[in-house]
Amino acid sequence: MIQIVFWNSLGFLFFGFIVSYVPIQLFGASGSEMGLIVSLQAFGRLLSTPLIGYLTDRVSKKKLVMVGALGRCISYIMYYLSIVLHSIPLFGAGIFTQGVLVGFFWPPFNSLVAEKSNKYFRSEAYGKRSSMIGWGSLAGSAFSFSVFTLAHHFIPDKLLIVYSPFLIFAVINIFAGLYFYRNVDEHYSFAEFKKEKIFSYNSDRNEQSELVIKNSSEGLPTQMESNKMSKKFLGAFFLLTLALMASRMNDTLAEPFLQVYLIENIIQNPTLVMLIYFPAQITSLLMAPYMGKICDRINPRVGILFLSCIGGAMTWFLIQTSSPVVFSLLLTFDFTFARANLLLMENVLSRTSQLHRGKIFGMAEWMKLLGGFFGPNIGGLVWDRVDHRAPFIISIFVEIFLVPLYWVSIFFLKPFMAEKVGKNSIIVN
């Protein structure tokens, strides 16, 4: 099932580079204008995510994933045309369109990952998804990096060729969506798999069979889920989504300006900036399954404390160095630990409810998008009016603020978990 994200993610890093490079370097936008442009994606998803969360639990998840793949195709074509026509409004419209339509992809896809994975290995499952994104990004960035570098060096005025990878990635997204729709069985879950295993055990394995039957309740709705959610649960879940919003705002405060900061303060060649930025992103994605294994075995609150402290330290060192090599190494660690934090949170969210996973992911995604809308705009304002290091310094303080917010929300949410993982839980393969 996760093979689709290899094909859908081919253009992720190229888009990530272009969305930061084009507005300022090609269109001459200010930091505030770039922040507004970047935030249009979050704004578009803010509008569509409530509907997507509602639909995820009611209609075919495969159809929603197909809509998301189609949306990425349309937005890539709009990016290409906006650059060729030198139209910043069309570029912004492409980002907004991507936000509205690509939002249909991730909530149903993440819900399917949760349904098809064992709760004891949930972070690892999401890590394997991220790893597949990494392999796709590696292949896609190798292709787009080669085209962009060669065309930018020999025929820089031929924008039709320099940015042509967008058209290739657009077509591939359509084929990937169709492949997913035709080949994935969305009705076959891990709970069904466990039921099949229970009835396949031989009589001489009664003890093991009883243990599996005892644990098989994870495929059934709990009494709490069959009733109305309590006020305590809603309050705890609101605190968790508030933390997710602040975390996403923290990420988008600085990340859109990383490449611009590199170009203006450390290295001016966009090709060399790619060589710094792409490996850091790809390495963090390929490390995700291993980080997921670790996240499955540690207390989420301990993990958050450690990862937040490391993340803040990495950000501080980033803006203190003038070495491209050191910057690349620090960025790799920063991205890797940030992704591990995301895996921890996705694990917690996936175990909060079984009957309402789509809505849970939808609501959490909406709050993260709210943070994703405010983050680039705040970052752009302080970039223009304070200092080019200001977005990064602010993000360090936000990272520290997140620790107690996550701790409190997880503490009060734990009694309501539909899937609980104890310290001494026995894992049955």
Automatic annotation (TrEMBL):
<protein>
    <recommendedName>
        <fullName>Major facilitator superfamily (MFS) profile domain-containing protein</fullName>
    </recommendedName>
</protein>
<feature type="transmembrane region" description="Helical">
    <location>
        <begin position="270"/>
        <end position="290"/>
    </location>
</feature>
<keyword id="KW-0812">Transmembrane</keyword>
<dbReference type="InterPro" id="IPR011701">
    <property type="entry name" value="MFS"/>
</dbReference>
<dbReference type="InterPro" id="IPR036259">
    <property type="entry name" value="MFS_trans_sf"/>
</dbReference>
<feature type="transmembrane region" description="Helical">
    <location>
        <begin position="392"/>
        <end position="413"/>
    </location>
</feature>
<feature type="transmembrane region" description="Helical">
    <location>
        <begin position="161"/>
        <end position="181"/>
    </location>
</feature>
<feature type="transmembrane region" description="Helical">
    <location>
        <begin position="133"/>
        <end position="155"/>
    </location>
</feature>
<feature type="transmembrane region" description="Helical">
    <location>
        <begin position="302"/>
        <end position="319"/>
    </location>
</feature>
<feature type="transmembrane region" description="Helical">
    <location>
        <begin position="64"/>
        <end position="82"/>
    </location>
</feature>
<feature type="transmembrane region" description="Helical">
    <location>
        <begin position="36"/>
        <end position="55"/>
    </location>
</feature>
<feature type="transmembrane region" description="Helical">
    <location>
        <begin position="88"/>
        <end position="113"/>
    </location>
</feature>
<dbReference type="InterPro" id="IPR020846">
    <property type="entry name" value="MFS_dom"/>
</dbReference>
<keyword id="KW-0472">Membrane</keyword>
<feature type="transmembrane region" description="Helical">
    <location>
        <begin position="233"/>
        <end position="250"/>
    </location>
</feature>
<feature type="transmembrane region" description="Helical">
    <location>
        <begin position="5"/>
        <end position="24"/>
    </location>
</feature>
<dbReference type="Pfam" id="PF07690">
    <property type="entry name" value="MFS_1"/>
</dbReference>
<feature type="domain" description="Major facilitator superfamily (MFS) profile">
    <location>
        <begin position="1"/>
        <end position="421"/>
    </location>
</feature>
<keyword id="KW-1133">Transmembrane helix</keyword>
